[in-house]
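hey can u run this one w/ iron/sulfur cluster bound, need the structure tokens asap thx
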Amino acid sequence: MDIKKLEAWYLSNQRKLSFRNTKNPYHIWVSEIMLQQTQVETVLPYFERFIQKYPTVFELAKANEEELQKEVEGIGYYRRFRNMHLAAKIIVNEHGGIFPSTYEEVIKLPGIGKYTAGAMMSIAYNEPYSALDGNVIRVLSRVYGNASDMRQEKNRKVLDQINQSLVEKATPDIYTHAIMELGATLCKPKHPQCDLCPLKSDCLAYDKNIVLDLPVLSKLKPKTELNYITLIIEKDGYLFLNKREEDLLKGMYEYPQFESESILSVIAELESKDIFMNIINEMKTFKHVFTHQVWHMKVYSVTLLSKPYPSWVKVKKDELNQLPMAIAHRKIK
Ligand code: SF4
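ok here u go:
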């Protein structure tokens, strides 16, 4: 593969993105974490606000957990920010607030796997480490005509080794940005723009006219469909909310909800625990799609006639917007 052509293409065609105008490892780390699983256009405003609120790792380490969650509400995959908060504390306590600069130290931080460690080393420190993400997998599987199933770890490893050997011959920060940018802008999954591509003459998939067949990705398991009864419980200008303990959306607030298709069975279950309520009306049904789950929520407005459930939190209605809330629930009212 002609690395020089790829790098030259990047230098004159790269999108101007705020988090690229920096060599500050903290900024690069924040952007790389946000870019995991999230589109660039979505990340941009979150990144700007986040860096304003937490300009250095010291502010992030001291952040209030709920405020931090509120800051990233709506972006999804919140575990990455819980890990980022933990990592910030480690960077402050064990590295004097300076982002570590060796691969071995970087990969030990919570929430940093092989991809992010490689991206940090190559982009922030210009060291030759492979950072293999979905875009890079697509470009390399097409350029090398690799038709193995890229859902399998062993097959991704083959591309990772190829990417490692390429970055070792390249200028690491430019190469890593360049191959990701090519995947994001020209070598797209459905509408690749091969005519504009600097790698066209090296690309086996283009040569054999099999571009749209690659990368091969076996089917994912179908998402789990879950039915919930969701309760809007108001009393004297207050709402009762639940703070999630589950790994999915941990720490976010939600209206109390119960896995069931019937409000009557939920009411009966609560009555068995001495919690009584009147149904006012069925408000709406909502559907929210996550990566592995689909929630079907029937939302009821109810009045509470007894004490609340012990874990429910009483929140003033007009303070609802200050709390981090699962978007599936934020869109209800
Ligand atoms: S020629 Fe087409 S398929 Fe090959 S790398 Fe370029 S954009 Fe991707």
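The chain has 14 helices and seven strands. anyway lmk if its weird
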